[in-house]
Amino acid sequence: MRRRLLVSAGLAAVFPGLAGAALERAATAQRDHLTLWYERPASQWVEALPIGNGRVGAMVFGRVRQERLQLNEGSMFAGGPYAADNPAAAAALPQVRALIAAERYREATELVASAMIARPSSQMPYGSAGDLLLDFHGLDGVSNYERSLDLSTAIAATRFTSNGVRYTREVFASAPDGVVVMRLTAEGGKLDCDLGYRHPRDASYGDSRAAGAAWHSAETLEAGQRPSTLSISADGLGTLLIAGRNIASAGVAGALRYALRVRAVGDGRIEAEGEQLRVRGASSVTLVIAAATSHVSSTDVSGDPLALVRAASNAASVRTYAQLRAAHVAAHHALFSRLSLTIGGAGHAAQPTDARVANAEQAADDEVAAMAALYVQYARYLLLSCSRPGGQPANLQGIWNEGNNPPWGSKYTININTQMNYWPAQAAGLPECVEPVLRMAEELAQSGAVTARVMYGARGWVAHHNTDLWRASAPIDGPNWGMWPCGGAWLCNILWDHWDYGRDPAWLRRIYPLLKGAALFFVDTLVEDPQGRGLVTSPSISPENEHRPGIALCAGPAMDRQIVRDLFGWTLALQRASGDGDHAFAQTLEQLRSRLAPDRIGAQGQLQEWLEDWDAGAPEQQHRHVSHLYAVYPSEQINLRDTPALIAAAKVTLRTRGDRSTGWATAWRLALWARMGEGEHALAILRGLLGPERTYPNLFDAHPPFQIDGNFGGAAGILEMLAQSWGGEVHLLPALPHAWRQGAVRGLRLRGALEMDLEWRQGRPHALVLRGAPGTRVKLSYAGRSMALVLDRRGVARRVASRLVFA
To answer: Which residue spans within 403-458 are E strands per DSSP?
Structure first.
């Protein structure tokens, strides 16, 4: 199947119509397990279906009388370029460090709050681009209703019958054309509808599923109030233009202009009247929806969104719907079809997706296995939809956000959440999706250099636990959350992984200066532990955990030491690969790395979260963060082969923390148990992750409320159960639960620029194909035994069961 999909995708450039049809025929066999489907419309935002092209996203509700498309544009943040570094920080820093060394933590916390936290103390939230509301007339007695999202084509569809007429609505976000396309058809009749725009409100899904239900569940939504900066007008025949300005936040004025343009093409009467488009007597209508802002970079808002939306919608409108659809499907398949995954036997895809979620924790093993495979593919679909070259990185909600001022600002929380968004990108065959993170890091290196100099008197660059579109890098929110200097350093993990999985020299040339700058900051700011235990960071916290009531501030938490150890190691590896002749700098890194305080095991046998053995007395014994287990996953510093005592200590910590937490934290626990080879434990956590407490009906992760990192972290954890690459080895089926006796994964990427197809039967590897550079020697391990393969002159090695011999 994978080969057929790739061949078909290659035809797209020459025969777009034929290729689109061929791709869909090739995907038919997979459609049962690559489709989300429902028997009723979405009554809440977390039941709607997401589409996106990396820059523009939409949530499709599938409602009959009033369809709602809730729109997003990736740069629609509040405010504008701003500086937030606290000028009092550098003078306060020596005193804060002295207070921490003297264990006067409360005084240190108060000083950080007054002198080191950013001004303003919060960052800019991500907002919505508003709603398109389509009011349909004459729809009564609806039957045969179904709505669906086909992951293989990235098309959301709604189908139903009313008064003998078969209505179909298809919606997709086209990456090649840069627009959202909606096709309305009435087979055996006509359709009449009015299209209008509603300005976004504050996000209202709140902290529970019930929040906002009063207006979420309404079949008809009212227009509501709108700001004076908003204008809605006709912009040519059958075209509506919406123009406005973003909101202010935390005293920072709105500096972005934005525009939406909707152009309708069809066989009925289509005209713009006032602030609406009216369609009468049509058998088919295609809507082309373009969105843009004036954002150019984190310091430049001079773009022309009106020109951008006019150009995009005009260019797309001259093409037929069949052409737009075929180009979209071909472009999507070129990336999505790289990886296929089957686990177990037949699942229960005949059940609607919301029913599968509702029953997941009690479901049969085969159903859980099938849902796990779907969950991985859904995460891949989401990443493709919300993070593509040229756009913004995936934020806390990817690209989908219902309104202004969402929970946690829906921005970039870089003490775990943004990093988790990209955990599956490399292994799951979507390395292109990381490009927005590279550009964010390049911009952060500029703003973070100012923060390093102003706050710490240091060289290099630093970012703390959050950032936004404007690449703010100072600590925010308060000492117990924001006073953590390793956010930028952890982002470098995403950049390193892209290099390690792909070995692209051009990528190396771009990321080496970033890692070198991040490392240089710690060269200047690490301090000696007063008790002689090694070099540490100070001030810092272990995100976002208190070691005593109301106090998180400390020196040298385990996670900092682990991240800095990795950062220095990555930088040294890239220094050698790049040919950089700065040997003095490399020698400095090697010396400092060897002096970092090591990981420690506490009195309870646990891996210590702090340099001191405070774990047993910490206020939250089941805290959602497991920051000090970074060294286990996503790092490989602590592993089964080399550090078994520390692995045992990590397991003690995890058992204390518990298996259930917020969505993303549950996903991290899944990945950790998988990395440690505990397949049955990982499967038990996965059941909880797939169930209704942690997954919404549309498969969005339920933090609650929605955060997309749980989707991505969960997918990474599932792949970790099947294969791992660390320590110079490829580990086959390292955490395979007994219930998953058979399956196959094709197109899985590995470190060292390798790709693997793996089939297993009766819980054992049955067939294996490795691809990479000719002559590459690959060490494989399975169940504590190993073997080595050398790729032939074509860069391929194949083995079947009789030749998969591990000694």
So the answer is: 412-413
d(CA 716, CA 430): 12
pLDDT in tens, 327-358: 999 999 999 999 999 998 755 567 999 999 99
Confidence of residue 227 (pLDDT cuts 50, 70, 90): confident
- Dihedral of CA atoms 215, 218, 222, 223 in degrees, nearest 10, equals 60
Output the six-digit token pair for 644.
């078994």
In the chain, where the domains are located: 2-77+131-337, 85-119+422-631
- Helix, coil or strand: residue 481: helix
Fold assignment, 85-119+422-631: Glycosyltransferase (1.50.10)
Quickly state the pLDDT bin for 229 (edges 50, 70, 90): confident
Contact 211, 204 (CB under 8 A): yes
Can you tell me whether residue 395 is helix, strand or coil? strand
Opening angle at CA 390, ends 389 and 391, nearest 5: 95
- Quote the strand ranges of 137-252, DSSP E: 143-150, 155-162, 165-174, 179-187, 191-198, 231-234, 239-245
What pTM was estimated for this model as a whole?
0.94
For domain 2-77+131-337, which architecture applies?
A: Distorted Sandwich (2.70)
According to the 3-state scheme, what is the secondary structure of 513-549? HHHHHHHHHHHHHCEECCCCCCEECCCECECCECCEC
Q: Whole-angstrom Cα distance, residue 528 to residue 748?
A: 43
Rounded to 5 degrees, φ, ψ at 206 are 60, -145
Q: Which helix (H) or strand (E) holds 35?
A: strand 35-38
Q: How does DSSP assign 608-640, residue by residue?
A: PSSSSS-GGG-S-TT-S--GGGGGTTT--SS-T
For residue 669, give every residue at least 6 positions away whose Cβ sits within 8 Å of its Cβ, in sequence order, or none: 626, 654, 657, 659, 661, 685
6 has a pLDDT exceeding 90 = no
Q: How confident is the model at residue 19 (pLDDT cuts 50, 70, 90)?
A: very low
Whole-number Å distance between alpha carbons of 525 and 536: 9
